[in-house]
Each structure stands twice: as structure tokens, then as C-alpha cells.
Write a structure and sequence with these properties.
Radius of gyration: 14 Å
Helix content: 10-25%
Number of strands: 6
Number of domains: 1
Strand order of the largest sheet: 1-2-3-4-5-6
Structural class: alpha+beta
Distance between the termini: 9 Å
Strand content: 25-35%
Number of helices: 2
Amino acid sequence: MARAGEGRLRRAPARLGASLAVALASGAAAAGAQEMPAVPPALPSGQQVVPLDMALERQGDGQVWLVLRYLAPRIARETGDLGFDDVIADLDALCAGPGLVAAAQAEATGPAPDQIVVTLMDRPVPRGATDPGATLFIEAYIPGPEGCTWP
């Protein structure tokens, strides 16, 4: 299994559509929330992100997803200066840092997350809502002893 950022082609950028938003918010009942771990002071792209929210969500198949959402104004379509390729390493760093810390905290009190989902968004979008003008970049990872890997 390839570690994030190594030996595998990246998927195309994901724009959050209505069906995925509903799946993340309602198809998965929130299993709990906790305080978000600190963001690394310097992300690879140089951008600063602001933690928005974090939730543990039980999926219909029984899996538990740890979802971390961050505000990243520099990815805005019309006013931003960073595209998906510019922030790939940021997504990886947010999984490898705060994501793995939060996964370990979750495992200490309940089931270990099966996946970590990291979302960067240019503006706050309520969970389960759609905003066609918003830019969202989403990446999913499997947490493990080697760090974050792509499913």
C-alpha cells in the first residue's frame, strides 16, 4: 500500500456534490465530536488554514470515518491562488498530523476510525448543505502504523 504522496497517481480534485454532502452528513449519523488537534504552523503550500469542525461518523456499512474540515480561503475559484495540485501535500500533512492525533484520541475512547477524510473549503459550508459557488478539496485516507495511506 502506497503512503500518501508516494508512488501513486493522484485522483482528480473532488468537488463536493449534493449526494456526497448528504452521505457525509446524514447517511452517517455522527458518532461523536471532539476538540480538533492543532494545525501544523506551516503547511507545505505556505497557506494557513483554520480548523472548522471534526466529527466521527458511523457509515451505513458500519465503518467509522473521522472527518476534519478546514477553512482555506486561498483555494477560492475566483480570488484564490492555490489549486488542487498546490494543496495535495497540505491534505496529506493534515491527515498525518492532526488527523492521526485525532484518530488516536478517538481510539482511546471507542472504535478506531477506518478512514480519515480531510476537507479544505474556501468558505464555511454547513454539514449536509450544498453551495455551488464554494470550492472544496477532499481526500480520504486509511490510518495505520505507516501513517496515512490512500484507500
